[in-house]
Structure formats: structure tokens, C-alpha cells
Amino acid sequence: MAVLLFYKKDITDEGDIIERKLWKVDKSKDFPEGIKYSFVYICNNKRTLGYDNERAKGHHKHYFDKEIKYEFVNIKKLFQDFEKDLEVVRKMIYGNKEN
Q: What is the pLDDT of the chain when averaged over all its residues?
């Protein structure tokens, strides 16, 4: 059974979507830490950045059109890593203007 622990959805001034979801789930082969997460940044209706631990894929991130293995340490670091990558991606797209 999944229990939602955290949910936040933001819409930027540009109309982009930043959504973070984190659930507590039963520990299993697919979810050994007992959590499931989906963090996503959607720019121009396209997933530009995403972190998740989909069943059978394990921890990974989507960075533009690439899927890269993600080394999960803990929930705090997950949030920090996503925010850091989000800042980098938004600067790549929009330059150094205030976000």
C-alpha cells in the first residue's frame, strides 16, 4: 500500500511545471528503501528533467532525452540533487535571469 508523504506542484512564470511526489511503500525488490518518488520538470509540454525509481528500472533520472542511473543516498539528498539539477537546466534554457 502506498502512502503519499509529500506532494508539491509549482507553475513557473514561464508556464513550466515542477512537480514532486514521494510515497512510502512496502519494502520490496523494486523499492528496497520503502519509498517511491517522481520528481519532474516539464518545459514547453516536454519532460526536461525527471527523477524516479520506476519498478524494475531502479533509481534513475531523465536529463533532456537521456536516461541516467541515479545513486540514491537518502530523501534529503534526493531533494537537494533535484533542485540543483533543476537550477542548472533552467539556466540552460532561460539564461541567468531571475527564476
A: 95
Mean pLDDT of 41-50: 97
pTM higher than the cut 0.85: yes
CB 36 within 8 A of CB 30: no
Distance CA 81, CA 83 (A): 5
Q: What's the Cα-to-Cα distance from 67 to each of 1, 9, 16, 62, 95, rounded to whole Å?
A: 28, 23, 21, 5, 24
Q: Are 40 and 21 in contact (CB under 8 A)?
A: no
The pLDDT value given to residue 99: 46
How many Å is the maximal CA-CA distance in the chain? 43
DSSP assignment of 54-99: -TTT-SEEEETTEEEE-----HHHHHHHHHHHHHHHHHHHHTTS--
Distance (Å, rounded) from C-alpha 10 to C-alpha 35?
22
* pLDDT in the model for residue 97: 65
